[in-house]
Amino acid sequence: MNKVTFNTDLCKGCGLCVEACPKKIITLAADVLNKKGYHPACITDAEKCIACAMCATMCPDVVITVEKNV
Amino acid sequence: MVVFKKPQSLSPVPTHYCPGCTHGIVHRLVAEAIDALGIEGQTIGVAPVGCSVFAYNYFECDMIQAAHGRAPAVATGVKRTNPDKIVFTYQGDGDLAAIGTAETVHATTRGENITIIFINNAIYGMTGGQMAPTTLPGQVTTTSPYGRNPMIQGNPIRVCEMLSTLDGLAFAQRVAVDTPAHVNQAKKAIQKAFQNQIDKKGLSIVEVLSTCPTNWGMSPTEALKWLRENMMPYYPLGVYKDIDAKEENK
């Protein structure tokens, strides 16, 4: 399975990754606050990830690491 | 297989930028270009005055912070005394196109062998959203509360078009960072601007259309939409000068 890791403490909850994801499987965790006080981005259905890295491409804070299962 | 991770040339620290500010994307693209060309140990960056004044905290290469608008002049000195180093400036529109217009124009016409990364977000960010030289006609800012009126405040400056008339310029391209496709295009342009310097071709500038969600008064995603609908028609994307292309045509 492809793996997406979020360095949540760097996340500012801007939501650019949410908009960029073609599979619409990223959301801002409504019930979580990170160290900075933002709702960090997280993945809802990791099975559907195609490792396109569009989320990471749009992330201004380099929160996301994407690994493709080959 | 890792398909995306933080570039080595970018420091592993949180930035001070507002949520959704595209400075972070452009910082990463510059770091990716430095990594791709393997020039981390020989690159010297010049930070501007403006939101990106702290750029020296975010890159792993050596950095200098210049007085407001003077980054191309400082870069000229650094490059001439260290011709084997790769020197880039990272400047916003208030820095490059207002107080630093003279330095920008003259460094370009002298054909200094440096790379300029120019962030155009049509507003002054750090000082609180005042009108910039690049503010669009009709755009509301704290110093143009009824919208910029070209009859009173003059017309915006299109920097790439202006500089492309100068002989010292090797490469000018305007890109945007509103979609993943445009970000990838911007990455290629920035890499080319650094490669040109390695090949000693003259001054290369990449103008990046960016957002300022905080001072535009929008959410980060609304700001990207506003950029697409308002800035792109006024500041068309494209290559404005490329001396390689000219050689091919001859």
Please explain how this structure is put together.
The complex is a heterodimer of chains A (70) and B (250). With 70 residues, chain A is an alpha+beta fold. Chain A is built from two helices and four strands. Chain A starts with a strand and ends with a strand. Chain B has helices at residues 23-37, 71-81, 93-99, 101-109, 150-153, 159-163, 180-198, 213-216, 220-234, 243-249; strands at 2-4, 43-47, 62-65, 86-92, 115-120, 169-176, 203-209, 238-242. Chain B has a seven-stranded mixed beta sheet, sandwiched between helices. Chain B is built from ten helices and eight strands. Chain B is globular and about 50 Å long. Chain B has 250 residues and is an alpha/beta fold. Helices cover 38% and strands 18% of the residues of chain B. In chain B, 52% of the residues are buried. The N and C termini of chain B lie far apart (44 Å). In chain B, helix 1 (23-37) crosses helix 7 and helix 3 crosses helix 4. Strand 4 of chain A pairs antiparallel with strand 1 of chain B, so a sheet runs across the interface.
